[in-house]
Structure formats: structure tokens, C-alpha cells
Write a structure and sequence with these properties.
Strand content: under 5%
Oligomer: single chain
Structural class: mainly alpha
Order of helices and strands: EEHHHHHHHH
Number of helices: 8
Strand order of the largest sheet: 1-2
Number of domains: 2
Distance between the termini: 37 Å
Helix content: 55-70%
Bound molecules: zinc ion
Length: 212
Amino acid sequence: MKCIICEQRKAKRYCPAKRRSICPVCCGEKRGVEINCPLDCPYYVEGQKYQQEKITRQRLKKEGVQPYIRRAELYNKNPEIFAKIELALATLFRMDGKLTNGEVAEALELVIKTLDTEKKGILYEYRSENRIVNELSGRVLDILREYTDRTQVGQGRVSLDYARDVVEEFLKEIRFYIEMDSNPQSYLIHVSRYHPEKSGATQGGGSLIMSP
Ligand SMILES: [Zn+2]
């Protein structure tokens, strides 16, 4: 029996999303991105685990343990912000399949510049020539403002410095992907897999990416 996606290779895996059998190559390449995998598919779960372990190993080897501790500290302060930014990236990637890691990096650089200016008391939003970059930086800024503008610390208000640190953290991770992976969308694929299409809206509570 042939894979129903590529119609070339042997179908060896039952795909619960397609309700048919597909080949391991299509499963590996498209799961969580083009295929809307249910979260309990064993191939999906295994694939996530493998991918995350691989990246963690590579990054630990390159940067040591310090960036991880720092990221965990930032994350624990406000997991919601991390999850919302990830979700915004995944959502935009689904809307515009051409979005690249480089464009995300550019958008986040704009956000940082904007926050730095704001710290000096000037409200100015840095823009790019690229429409999708502007869209993304606007969305990330909206998410951050939701928290920096809250009146009370107890309600999850964060400082501009914290907001900047979070964006910096994302930027470092994306740059790592840009450097290590020749696929120009690798980071976006990675993030999208943690925010599957249908359950995306209900996943705001926490980012699964932080789990080791
Ligand atoms: Zn196939």
C-alpha cells in the first residue's frame, strides 16, 4: 500500500489525522505542521520528544548550561507571556507559510529597539519595509503591553526590562536555529508543533517547549 500523501513510498504508519496510512518520511516532515496531529498520536509524541532532546543537546554543547538556567528563571516568572508569543508566531506562520526564521528575528529586533526607546520615555514604534515583519512585531508588542500596562504587580504586571529580556531570549533561540539548521523555517516549524491548530486557543496556560 502506498502513502496517501506522497503516493510514492510505502505506507507504514497509521495516521490518525488522515485516517489512513502514510509513510515515515511524510509523517516526519509534515507532522504538526501540515498534518493536524492529535496530541495523543504516539508518532507525534515521540517526534516532539526526539526533536526537543536533539536541540537541547546541541544548544547545551554550544552554550553550556547557563542560558538554560536563565531562560527557566525568566519563564517561571510569567509562563503566560512565553506561551502567547509562541502562539502568535505559530498563528502567523499558519497564515503565511512563507514566513522565515530570519523575518521573525528581524521582527523581534524591532521590538527590542522599540522597548529600548520606550525605556527612555519616548513612544516610537520601529517599522520595517516588510509587511509581515511589521505584523509580527506589532503582535508581539501588543502581547507585551498587555502585561507592562497592567496597574498591579499582583495581576501579572511585568517591567519593561523583563519584557525586553523575554524578547531577547526568543531572539537568541531563533538565532541558534538560524545558525544550526539550514531549513529557513525550522524554528517556526518547531514552535508550530507545540501549538497545534485546533487546541491552540486553549493552550494559553503554558508553553510545552520549556519542559526538558
Ligand atoms: Zn509519504
